[in-house]
Write a structure and sequence with these properties.
Layout: E1 4-10, E2 14-20, H1 25-39, H2 45-58
Antiparallel strand pairs: 1-2
Helix pairs in contact: 1-2
Length: 71
């Protein structure tokens, strides 16, 4: 299966390219966060990764299934 190429513009003359597997949910979720960070128009790589980190920190944890005793 071919990977999806996602271009993330950084500043006026740079870009990051991320190749995400369309069948991998984790890669698609990460690509979505990268797109959100790039949409805020970072001017440097450091600014991009700072914004990406902030988005990852805000991401709510995945709900865990409660393990209870059955009666």
């Amino acid at each position: 299966m071919e990977k999806e190429k996602i271009t993330l513009p950084i500043g006026g003359n740079k870009a990051l390219i991320f190749e995400a597997d369309p069948t991998n949910k984790e890669e698609q979720d990460f690509a979505k966060l990268c797109k959100e960070a790039a949409a805020s128009q970072p001017q440097s790589l450091q600014d991009f990764f700072t914004r990406l980190n902030d988005l990852q920190q805000k991401k709510p944890p995945e709900p865990k299934r409660k393990m209870g005793r059955k009666m």
